[in-house]
Design brief:
The complex is a heterodimer of chains A (250) and B (249).
Chain A lengths: L1 H26 L9 H13 L2 H33 L1 H16 L6 H8 L3 H25 L3 H9 L4 H37 L6 H9 L5 H33 L1
Helix pairs in contact in A: 2-10, 3-4, 3-6, 3-8, 3-9, 3-10, 5-6, 6-8, 7-8, 8-9, 8-10, 9-10
Chain B lengths: L3 E10 L2 E11 L4 E6 L5 H8 L7 E6 L2 E2 L7 E4 L11 H11 L4 H14 L15 H13 L5 E5 L7 H14 L4 E5 L3 H7 L2 E5 L5 E6 L6 H9 L1 H18 L2
Parallel strand pairs in B: 3-8, 3-9, 6-7, 7-8
Antiparallel strand pairs in B: 1-2, 1-4, 4-5, 9-10
Helix pairs in contact in B: 2-3, 2-4, 3-4, 5-7
The chains are: A mainly alpha (250), B alpha/beta (249).
The structure holds adenosine-5'-triphosphate and magnesium ion.
Adenosine-5'-triphosphate binds next to strand 2 and helix 1 of chain B.
Amino acid sequence: MRRLSQLTPVAVAALLLAAWEFGVRAAAVPQFILPAPSVIAVRFAEAWADGTMLRHLVPTVTEVTVGGLLGGALGLLIGVTLGLSGSARRVVSPYLVAAQSTPILALGPVLVLWLGPGLTAKVAVCALITLFPVAISTLVAVRDVDAGTLELMRSLGATRWQSLRYARLPAARSGILAGARVAATLAVVGAIVGEWLGGTAGLGVLLNLARGSLFDTPLLFADLLQIAIVGVSAYGLVLFAERVLSKKIA
Amino acid sequence: MPILQVEGLSHSYGERHVLRSLSLAIAAGESVALLGANGSGKSTLLRLVAGLLTPTAGRVVLVGSAAAAGRPEVGIVFQESRLLPWRTVLRNVTLPLELSGESLPSARTIAETALKRVGAGGLLDRSPAEISGGERGRVALARALVRQPSLLLLDEPFAALDAITRARLDDELPELVAGAATLLVTHDVAEALLVADRVLMLGADGAIHLEVPGLRSLPAAERRAALLSPDGAARQTRLYAALDSVSHA
Ligand SMILES: Nc1ncnc2c1ncn2[C@@H]1O[C@H](COP(=O)(O)OP(=O)(O)OP(=O)(O)O)[C@@H](O)[C@H]1O
Ligand SMILES: [Mg+2]
């Protein structure tokens, strides 16, 4: 049964790719509009073989990792603090909501202006874009822990810290990780958009190059494929962390 | 010298007066059952004794000093078992020991013994989601007993159980509590008589209305028969009548 359910998505993907391949060929769609999957695959392999892809992949992965971890850690800290303290929550949460409703990406040009076209600005975009979903989901999860559980902890003489460690955080785990899953994919978006704003390397820069000066549509699609792989990996890493953590807690 | 001494205890939630000048003493090892209508303040009384609430007036003295939350001399079983779903049965029972600084290996040993005592020795590695309601009740009892409290507070611990499981636990409870004094809140007159030395009736006015001796001092095998004897039936009738009158007050 398990085999079958794992196989179905693969089968669907194969079917779609086949339709794409034959559709493009049959309708003779020009390659600079929509290349066939086989063409993209070949270009993808070439870009890896000649080092282009790796050169642009490394900065993007760095930005996503550093920015994501930084934003995630900060978001967790802010979320736990606000989840625990009602008074801090009343003061800060209106700003948190306002900040979350502001598209962080719109701050990109400002950050590049302040921090320059290098890595720092892009890390900052990634960090900001991860911070809010993690902070808000953590806040809600830590705040809304079952009152009965908290009363139990108090009846057992748990300190505030013990209550956080033994009850609030484990109870909030799935809520926090739901925020982290959203944040992981957003971090990749943040990195790409940050790179569009300037810079010399990165998968976002490569998108611009392939579309513009190189006019290499197959490379553009190969790059999109690479970006998707980065996004899925980031998501997968959060799932993996979730699995490890749940084993540790139990 | 009683284990628990409650003197002139009153409590209000804002404008709502729940307990009024209630006094009560429980001796070491004694078992007291508390009956009363919904909303008469039984859970409030247990919270006050456990130090989870501060009384509006009066005082609670527990083993010689004022009640305070988290004292290891007190064990509580709440109406819902409140087991932590992310911990195994064994680790739920080690929790009170971990919180008071016991090392994990020795906490495990103590918890295992407690679980065996209450008849849940076969459940150690199960998750709370994988055991029955009756088993959860036993595990919650083991968790309350693991720090060897001298007073056990039980707030309708078996209310959610089916009649047979509940009857079995009622029969076993006096032996399971390992010599701790108990204050049991229940709505079940027969249960109250079976497990307690004294049965108290809390009225809607927040004071104690009636006291009837219970059957706990009898050997376990004779308690159920005594409940049905003319004398036992008379006690039940008195309690039902009182419960009826306080419920309509
Ligand atoms: N936190 C609270 N704030 C305000 N009122 C409360 C609170 N807790 C309980 N009350 C009220 O105090 C009264 C007594 O509540 P309590 O839970 O002690 O009753 P009880 O005797 O345990 O009832 P039951 O048999 O239904 O469990 C009820 O009327 C209840 O509505
Ligand atoms: Mg109650």
